[in-house]
Design goal:
Number of domains: 1
Largest sheet: 4 strands, mixed
Order of helices and strands: EHHEEHEH
Radius of gyration: 15 Å
CATH class: Alpha Beta
CATH architecture: Alpha-Beta Complex
Helix content: 25-40%
Number of strands: 4
Shape: globular
Number of helices: 4
CATH topology: Conserved hypothetical protein from pyrococcus furiosus pfu- 392566-001, ParB domain
Distance between the termini: 38 Å
Length: about 130
């Protein structure tokens, strides 16, 4: 895997979403919150950025591969651009992420901690009865 920082505008965000392989539905509330933060210059560059896996044969990926995490953040960049044309937002980009890091059937936010453990190669903790 390789990580770096990139400023993303609406053109790049559309490109990343077009070839994406993100399974989770977008939350309009989360997207609106991200847009508000971006427009108010309160968006912070944090560890949660964009993740791309390598493309398989026949896929039409963007320059970094196929986006597997970051759809809501990219939707927010596109929406923020409607109010502030040309806005560019900083993100950490990680390429070469294994395609099986995220399970396609995760029900939502409650699955994030176990997914983080699996992505690091650890077993998620179990709850004691």
């Amino acid at each position: 895997m390789h990580s770096f920082t990139e400023f993303v505008n609406a053109v790049k965000a559309r490109e990343y979403i077009t070839g994406s392989d993100t399974k989770r539905s977008a939350s309009p509330t989360v997207v609106r919150t991200y847009v508000r933060d971006m427009l108010n210059e309160e968006w912070r560059l944090i560890h949660a950025g964009l993740a791309f896996r390598d493309a398989a044969a026949g896929e039409a990926p963007c320059q970094h591969g196929v986006m597997i995490d970051g759809k809501q953040r990219m939707m927010a960049v596109i929406e923020a651009d409607r109010s502030q044309p040309g806005i560019e937002v900083p993100f950490y980009i990680t390429t070469g992420v294994p395609g099986d890091v995220f399970e396609p059937s995760t029900p939502g936010a409650s699955a994030r901690l176990p997914m983080c453990f699996r992505s690091g190669g650890w077993a998620p903790p179990t709850t004691a009865s």
